[in-house]
Write a structure and sequence with these properties.
single chain, alpha/beta, TIM Barrel, eight-stranded parallel beta barrel, three-stranded antiparallel beta sheet, elongated
């Protein structure tokens, strides 16, 4: 091949040696002067392999645009040879004019029964005309003999020739050494031969894959450190799966061992248990390891990007996800909130604004006076302990009836105004009426009649909907939009019903939680009743009243 062969040697494991994981907390191979960690996103390929996930072409293009704005170094577009949609994506993403990210096409090394020039996967990658090609090759001897069905030496040739072929056509080549950590544990000499073959053929980065996700951080650290030592100047990367819930920890362990390239997905999406979560990896690199990954300005958009990808994927956000989850900086215990009001670092490991998140104080029957005082502070209401006690007593009374305010911040805001005596309704209900008609054809028609007054003027409207709540929502909006045009900006984005006292059977109370949003905010409201329509009405009215109160400010 005309290039120096990289040295390799198996990892020495002295008898009785115990790896102390706390060693990873030291400064080994890590100083503030080391180079930038290159971030590689595979949400559009590996992330799409998650159960229940399917991105359309437009979805993939939209996500690619947001990932580019985030400033990631690489965006993997998909497995080019898998279906026509992937090929179309590469054609259209080239027209987006991405400013920060390089698009990578993914493919496998050549088949054992053909040459590189005739291989479909390699030539489809070239046809995508991307600047980067990511090649996956076998590095576990068992996978070579049992899955590929070729000899170990032949696989070395396959890997080297495939890398050389893409390099000859001008691509930056990243070699994903599939099952590397498992292969190394079984046959370290052969696993090293595979990555050496790819490096000698000109691969720009050697990415070590924990494909089955079964490794622990101490194993990843030791093996990665050995590879970094043996391959000298080659750039080493990590691609970790989360089957032991260690993908993020494994990625950080690899960086401590010398890896300069990390692959993962937004929100940890991926096959089986998912991939390393870039929404956790990135702030851990920046704030905990002091390694440059993204600029502070970009990291402040991380929460927004996380929620955007959840929305595009039609997935419910993971509330307790570190850093970007809605509960990541939510505080419920009264003692915790009291301490936070005195020192923000007492129960928060970073300032939530650093990742674009926010601090939340949860109000419930478990809350103390401090929670209510903290909410009053956020609302810029002067500290009033007597008022706080009155509000807390009312919250506890309502929660005893089935209400819950943790996800109903707007209803709590209105409750505070009612206790303070500053609440003023924007309209008054006279009556509502709902009919559901099923016709012989099977068609179901739902109609809501709403009659109310605004400033002494009576409004009486009829609206249809897909169901009783939808019809009621449409009727309420229709009756108010002539008086309050901004009501047209409000959209109901989520609707949840939960039985409060299941033992009561069909006479049980239900709690309805509604999430609404306008052009610049999102809020939650709650209603409780034995009648699901009445509970829904309460939550709908709170949503509209909160919007109008917000606009009035």
């Amino acid at each position: 091949m005309g290039r120096r062969l990289w040295r390799y040697s198996p990892l020495r494991q002295a008898q009785g040696e115990v790896f102390i994981f706390t060693f990873l907390l030291g400064l080994d191979r890590m100083t503030s002067t080391m180079g930038k960690i290159r971030l590689y996103d595979t949400t559009l390929r590996d992330g799409m392999q998650a159960e229940g996930i399917s991105f359309s072409l437009d979805d993939k293009l939209a996500i690619a645009g947001r990932l580019d704005e985030l400033g990631l170094d690489y965006i993997e577009g998909g497995y080019a040879a898998s279906n026509p949609k992937e090929v179309q994506f590469f054609a259209e993403v080239a027209e987006l004019g991405l400013k920060n990210s390089r698009i990578a096409a993914f493919g496998s090394t050549r088949r054992a029964d053909c040459s590189v020039s005739d291989d479909i996967s390699l030539n489809t990658m070239l046809a995508c005309k991307t600047p980067v090609g990511t090649l996956v090759g076998k590095s576990w001897d068992m996978q070579v003999t049992d899955v590929l069905g070729c000899s170990l030496d032949e696989n070395l040739t396959i890997c080297g020739e495939s890398v050389e072929y893409l390099k000859k056509h001008g691509l930056e080549v990243l070699f994903d050494a599939e099952h590397f950590y498992d292969g190394y544990k079984e046959n370290p000499e052969y696993a090293m031969k595979v990555v050496a073959a790819a490096a000698n053929a000109g691969a720009d980065a050697i990415v070590l894959c924990d494909t089955n996700g079964g490794c622990l951080p101490d194993q990843v650290y030791e093996i990665t450190k050995t590879v970094c030592d043996q391959l000298g100047g080659a750039e080493i990367g990590i691609h970790a799966h989360n089957d032991t819930d260690c993908a993020t920890a494994n990625s950080l362990a690899a960086v401590r061992a010398g890896a300069m390239h990390v692959q993962g997905t937004i929100n940890g999406m991926g096959e089986r248990c998912g991939n390393a979560n870039l929404c956790t990896v990135i702030p851990n690199l920046e704030f905990k390891m002091r390694r440059e990954a993204l600029s502070p300005e970009k990291i402040r958009t991380l929460t927004e990007v996380s929620r955007y990808v959840f929305e595009i994927g039609n997935m419910a956000p993971v509330m307790n996800m570190p850093y970007v989850g809605e509960s990541a900086f939510a505080h419920k215990g009264g003692l915790h909130v009291d301490a936070l009001r005195k020192s923000k670092g007492s129960y928060e490991h970073i300032t939530p604004e650093l990742v674009g998140n926010e601090r939340r104080f949860l109000i419930s029957e478990l809350s103390g006076k401090s929670n209510v005082l903290a909410e009053l502070e956020k609302a810029k209401i002067a500290e009033d302990k007597k008022l706080a006690r009155e509000i807390l007593a009312r919250v506890q009374e309502l929660e005893n009836e089935g209400y819950q305010f943790e996800a109903a911040d707007a209803s709590f805001d209105l409750l505070v105004k009612k206790v303070m005596g500053t609440y003023k309704p924007f309209f008054n209900l006279i009556k509502y009426h709902i009919t559901v008609e099923k016709r012989a054809s099977g068609e179901i028609v739902t109609e809501a009649t709403v009659k109310l007054t605004v400033d002494g003027k009576t409004e009486h409207v009829v609206a249809e909907g897909d169901g009783p709540v939808n019809a009621l929502d449409a009727g309420l909006r229709k009756s108010l939009e002539n008086f309050y045009p901004s009501i047209r900006d409000v959209h109901l984005i989520d609707y949840k019903v939960r039985v409060v006292n299941a033992g009561a059977g069909t006479a049980a109370k239900v709690r309805v939680i509604i999430e609404s949003m306008d052009k610049d905010a999102m809020w939650g409201t709650v209603g409780v009743s034995e009648n699901v329509i009445e509970a829904s009405w309460q939550a709908l009215v709170d949503s509209v009243e909160y919007k109008l109160q917000k606009d009035a400010k």
